[in-house]
Amino acid sequence: MAKYVILTKITSEGLETLKENPSRIKEVNEEIAKKYGVKVLHQFIVMGPYDFVNIVEAPSNEAVVKMAIDLGSRGTIQTLTMPAIEIEKLIEELKKK
To answer: How many distinct structural domains can be found in the chain?
Structure first.
């Protein structure tokens, strides 16, 4: 399965949800695993222009796009999603002639 880095900004509505129900983070992780097959491998809260950095594994680009659209349409977050290539795979590809 492919890996992705998802940078997330929380909206003011999302901050209110997080404040009232901090375990919502884990609930959403479980929801996206069941609904889209997207598994959260690592999740960090960060300081700066983004609030969370998520490393996920997904069956396809389409699954990640559907997930991002669904979550974004709720009005609680905005995401920036980037495919991630493991260094070992890059080295293997670069060695091929």
So the answer is: 1
